[in-house]
Design brief:
The structure is a single chain. By secondary structure, the chain is an alpha+beta fold. Helices cover 20% and strands 44% of the residues. It contains five helices and ten strands, in the order H-E-E-E-E-E-H-H-H-E-E-E-E-E-H. Strands 5-1-2-3-4-10-6-7-8-9 form a ten-stranded antiparallel beta sheet. The longest helix has 10 residues. It is globular. It starts with a helix and ends with a helix.
Length: 169
């Protein structure tokens, strides 16, 4: 994987058997605690935001071949890569502390369909507290999640940005 990181290659990361998700993007960082990906949206083949996975949650990955790379529509990866500070991603707690005040999508183990979208308001080594937001950009109640149950963190996507734009109207 280190060579793919240096090459900024697009990879598919398979999280089975821990949970059934395939994440696609440019792997920016891999350590024993986290994997940081610049997301490639496989529906529109454009880069969009970031995903942080647990470093121990995958066993398999593969780099895209030349024919697949040609399908990428708009390569805005350089701009998105330059906007991220890799030092902020040593583990999940540090990641979330550095995303304090940001809108994030939080996924939990055992449920790949449900996720939480909210602003990070507090983080400890045990819990994460979010101010929830709905799909119409209305602030809701606070939600406290067990940090050990968090399987992945998404942020900086068009979805979160759209919610913030609607909030400011």
């Amino acid at each position: 994987m280190e060579n793919y990181i240096k090459q900024q290659a697009i990879v598919d990361i398979d999280t089975s058997p821990n949970w059934e998700i395939l994440s696609t993007g440019i792997c920016l960082l891999l350590n024993k605690n986290v994997v940081l990906l610049l997301n490639l949206n496989t529906d529109n083949l454009e880069f969009d935001g970031y995903t942080v996975l647990r470093g121990w949650d995958f066993e398999q990955y593969r780099a895209w071949d030349e024919s697949e790379l040609k399908t990428v529509k708009s390569n805005n990866s350089s701009e998105l890569i330059s906007n991220i500070n890799l030092d902020h991603f040593s583990n999940f707690q540090t990641t979330l502390e550095n995303l304090m005040g940001e809108l994030v999508a939080i996924f939990l183990y055992g449920d790949t369909e449900t996720y939480y979208v909210g602003k990070v308001v507090d983080v400890s080594n045990k819990e994460l507290r979010l101010l929830m937001i709905d799909e119409d950009s209305n602030w809701l109640d606070f939600e406290t999640l067990n940090l050990k149950e968090v399987s992945s963190i998404g942020f900086g996507t068009k979805y979160e940005k759209g919610l913030l734009e609607n909030l400011n109207k």
